[in-house]
Amino acid sequence: MEETMQQTTESVGCHQMNRTESEGYDGAQTLMRIIGENLVEVQTGTTNLLELILSPENLNRSYRQVIGNDGSGGVDKMGTSELLPYLNLHKDELIEQLQKGKYRPNPVRRVDIPKDNGKARQLGIPTVVDRFIQQAISQVLIPIYEREFNDNSFGFRPNRSAHDALKRVQEYADNGYHYCINLDLERFFDTVNHSKLIEVLSRTIKDGRVISLIHHYLKAGVMVAHKYESTEEGVPQGGPLSPILSNILLNELDKELSRRGHPFVRYADDCLILVKSKRATERVRDSISTYLEKKLFLKVNMEKTIIRDVRGMKYLGYSFY
DNA sequence: GTCTATGCAAC
RNA sequence: CUUGUUGCAUAGAC
Predict the structure, then answer these.
(1) Strand C, nucleotides covered by protein (CB < 7 Å)
(2) Using one digit for the tens of pLDDT, what is the confidence trace for A178-206?
(3) Whole-number Å distance, CA A5 to C1' B8?
(4) What is the secondary structure of A154-176 as a DSSP string?
(5) Which pLDDT does position A260 carry in this prediction?
(6) A141-153: per-residue pLDDT in tens?
(7) Nearest nt (C1') to A69 (CA)?
């Protein structure tokens, strides 16, 4: 075990780019330190973001996260156990391709899993190497976007739990917001509009190479029973990068709700809008639905979008009473 | 405070 | 070869 970790540090942490571009490498090191220690001062407009993603520290963290997540209880860790040998052989080539914008992600693997309600959830599972790279991207985007995200957004974010979200709903309810609209976005992950997401990303991320890499991940396609299918929309359910991408897009919804003065609580795609009067509920529901469809290109499921008194409302697995 | 390992939950 | 992010709990090592 300890030997494996030692190997890890050497293989993933070893940096061949250091020889050819020591200046860029040192810059990345510095940026890494700034992001880690002081979120406020990092310049998101940097064009050095890719170097930050490919820095040894970030890649090491990414490796350990990907390995650690696999159910390594004992028997089945075949997928991730192959990552270290692969990186030992190909990491220089991999990093070079990523730097030159030549890297092409592999299609995701389609796996259907049954949901509670009997329907199937379609997972899109990237290869271990792509999970590794996506994790590295995610780790750099998280501190950048944590500053931009809304205080009422709770899903997929560090130091924020579903319980925190419920407490926030309770606070609003106690302050006179007795009615709520529970928006249901139809197959949200599968219907994310690539152009819109890239547009929103580009406002903050100024390193075109990173934008391009993420775009390639969105378009990587999917293998369904040994047949390739292109992906024109959606983010893969199962990619390490997908949670933050979903929050980046839905942060636009948060901003719109704030602009209109509507209190809300959002956990991933599960959004609760709170209003004081019953009469306002349908008007708000309809205008926000129009916004989601026209501006964010997301479909609202009107049948499953429920309006009711907060008391008795079921949210994030709990009921209010 | 950092880090391993189980287990549960939300989406 | 059922993936992912996040949170909580328990045990243990510094």
Answers:
(1) 1-8
(2) 999 999 999 999 999 999 999 999 999 99
(3) 28
(4) -TT-TT--HHHHHHHHHHHHHTT
(5) 96
(6) 999 999 999 999 9
(7) C4
A173 half-sphere exposure, CB direction, 13 A CA radius: 19
- ipTM metric: 0.93
Name the 3-class secondary structure at A109: strand
Identify which of A246, A245, A236 has the alpha carbon closest to the alpha carbon of residue A107. A236
Could you please report the per-residue DSSP string of A248-292?
HHHHHHHHHHHHTT--EEEETTEEEEEES-HHHHHHHHHHHHHHH
A113 contacts A96 by C-beta, under 8 angstroms: no
> Nearest nucleotide by C1' from A68 CA?
B4
Q: Cβ distance A32 to A48 under 8 Å?
A: no
Instruction: Residue count of chain A, please give it.
Output: 321
Residue A143 CB-density burial (10 A; 0-12 exposed, 13-18 middle, 19+ buried):
middle
Q: Give the residue among A149, A104, A116, A114 at the shortest CA–CA distance from A246.
A: A149
Cα separation, A271 vs A293, in Å, equals 15
Does the reported pTM lie above 0.95? no
- Return the closest nucleotide (C1') to the Cα of A66: C4
